[in-house]
# Entry
Amino acid sequence: MLILDLFRSPSAFLTDPWGYARNQAGHALIVGLLPVLLLGPWAALPVLAGYVLWEVAQWRLYGAAPSDGLEDLAYVTGGVLAALWWPVLIVLALMLASGVQYRRDLRG
# Structure
């Protein structure tokens, strides 16, 4: 039930830089990249559409912040695009480093 609990408690990990890194790496690699690598390029749009529906459900049902959902969607989209063209991984790494540093700065 741990995964279901995580889905029901959306978080931007504002005070946990490494939790943020694990969360966003999972969005990019597990939710975005892996399905498209396994199923092929035709799966890109269904993966993104399904994920948009999930984020809307989290926003409406579990009180997720829209900004958190948009950031999660950006990482999933980056993962999908990286499955189609690997240099996108560079952009994802920069986004991840920026997000981790931002959260480190918030902690003081």
